[in-house]
Design goal:
There is one protein chain. The protein is mostly helical. The protein contains 14 helices and no strands.
Length: 349
């Protein structure tokens, strides 16, 4: 979900960045504003599936070792950074013995990588919104292993679909049987495997360069709306997926439609540059959003100034999160430049 987390590639596709921007912004809206029931379903029906589909889209080879190294750098390092940021925030905003206790708990939570609290693992709490990172790490590497082990089988297409469908069903059934969440969100990682495969098929089939893609997108939107009206949508963090395979299908067609619409937005001059930046920064935005949500930093300011007026607070919150994101990225880029200059000086010196 971000600079390299979803793509794990140095090359960029502008419309993919636009799609990620739409997903991350709707995520913030869904978390901080209780939209009407149907609007809430729309938001939750595509924003997380889209990130997993985008990740699958950029899996270009099934080298297990290479993907393990890449995904460790792209997902686990930002995950650790995000948890360390929360430890620092614990000192700043809580402090004292309670703050030190909070740091110890956050360290345990980081090792557990759970989406939410679970009675089976009472010593662990959920890592809040960055559950996505360990979950994607598990899902991506499991997906690559499955694809690698089946790549030389002449029935690979049917075998892969069967394996992914079974594992996804296991992921769906496990929390239903135990009513629990598991370390590293492994149950959700199983559930989302079909999303990664869907994204991979989209790339191989060149679906987003197909001349009929907007016609397909129109049909997908129509089916998407019908399924939402019937109550079929997927909310991964809540383990909510009525009519499981219909909910998965809905997530796929909704993400496809959003990505196709993103191609139209990407063609708009100036606007596309801003939205692309948001998409490229989506991982940093997630980390900033996670800390804001945990400690309510911006809420304190907004409640004093605007007395809970959502119509004012929501856009201001988004703008402030983007400004903080820009500042963080500027600092990181500055440190990278400084390090690069130091390396050049050391070589020439």
């Amino acid at each position: 979900m971000g600079e390299s987390a979803s793509g794990l590639s140095t090359s960029r596709l502008g419309f993919i960045d636009v799609a990620k921007a739409i997903a991350i912004l709707t995520m913030i809206i869904g978390h901080f504003y209780a939209p009407p029931i149907f609007a809430g379903r729309v938001i939750y029906s595509f924003h997380m599936p889209l990130f997993f589909i985008v990740s699958g889209y950029f899996v270009k080879d099934f080298d297990i070792k290479k993907n393990l190294i890449r995904s460790s750098k792209a997902l686990l390092i930002p995950y650790a950074i995000g948890m360390c940021m929360k430890m620092i925030a614990e000192i700043v905003f809580v402090g004292g013995d309670q703050g030190l206790s909070g740091i110890k708990q956050l360290f345990l939570d980081m090792l557990g990588g759970m989406c939410k609290e679970s009675a089976t693992f009472p010593w662990l709490r959920g890592v809040n919104m960055i559950w996505f990172l360990p979950c994607l790490f598990v899902a991506r590497n499991l997906f690559v292993i499955i694809m690698k082990l089946t790549e030389k089988n002449k029935y690979q297409w049917s075998i892969r679909i069967a394996i992914l469908a079974i594992l996804s069903c296991v992921g769906m059934a496990s929390p239903r049987l135990t009513y629990e969440y598991f370390p590293w969100c492994i149950e959700i990682a199983f559930v989302v495997l079909p999303f990664l495969y869907c994204g991979n098929v989209f790339r191989k089939r060149g679906i987003f360069s197909n001349k009929h893609r907007y016609l397909y997108a129109g049909g997908c939107i129509a089916v998407w709306v019908v399924l939402l009206l019937l109550g079929f949508y997927i909310e991964l963090a809540a383990h909510y997926w009525p009519g499981f395979y219909l909910a998965l299908f809905e997530g796929m067609i909704a993400s496809f439609a959003v990505i196709c619409l993103s191609q139209l937005v990407d063609a708009i001059p100036y606007l596309s540059r801003v939205i692309r930046w948001i998409g490229r920064s989506s991982l940093t935005i997630l980390l900033v959003h996670d800390i804001d949500d945990r400690y309510g930093i911006l809420d304190t300011i907004f409640n004093v100034l605007f007395s809970g007026r959502v119509s004012v607070i929501l856009p201001l919150r988004i703008v402030l999160i983007l400004l903080i994101t820009g500042l963080v990225r500027a600092i990181v880029n500055g440190l990278k430049t400084l390090r690069s200059n130091d390396s050049i000086t050391a070589v020439n010196g």
